Amino acid sequence: MPDPTQQYPAPATTQLAAQQRRLRIAQGILLLFHVTGFIGLGFSQDPSFYLQFVPLNLLLTVGLLLAFQPQRNITFVWFCLVTMAVGFFVEVAGIRTGLLFGQYEYGPTLGSKWLGVPLIIGVNWLMLTYTTGILARYLPLPAFGRALVATFLMVGLDVCLEPIAVRYDFWQWRFDVIPFLNFKGWFIVSLILQVFFNRSDFVKRNDLAPFVYMVQLLFFFGLSFLG
Length: 227
Prior knowledge:
Blueprint: H1 11-43, H2 48-51, H3 54-67, H4 74-97, E1 104-106, E2 113-114, E3 117-118, H5 121-136, H6 143-167, E4 171-173, H7 180-199, H8 209-226
Antiparallel strand pairs: 1-4, 2-3
Helix pairs in contact: 1-3, 1-8, 3-5, 4-5, 4-7, 5-6, 5-8, 6-7, 6-8
């Protein structure tokens, strides 16, 4: 007969422990990929081998991130699709007109293109919008205040990213000058997407989001520091 004094873990406790294990595994995978990329790009004599994995790294990051989104309902799916579409087509408008971000064109690093824009760009806009939107939810602010904070987080990451993007041919600016218009355009588009994020009706909680933003920020800031 079982010992009546034996203590069994409550289901909620067991579920929480399993969730924490999943989180640690996901963080470990992301850390491994980003540290490998950082070492390869920062210290290799020929970084081209590591650059070919940039789209894969982005897809892996977004896949793990979205796996920690609870209750992926139809509204959440719609948010993801609209955000990716908006992000992609503003880039199409950007390279064709130069009015949104300045005069630039994409290199080969980000993979296959359509209309002159890498297909992966929409995924990148989704990752940044979703991650920063989740982070801003931690603040006791009204919806528009959180949207502004998340927008500044997106622009801040872009500031760290830009020198690296040029160095490794993600994209190139005319006359090799990053215009202020780029950050202004990023701010406007990001704010629109953040308002859309806040108005979309789905659970806005993700345990992996803070780690994703932190590892991205440290990755690009570290490469910028190496010069």
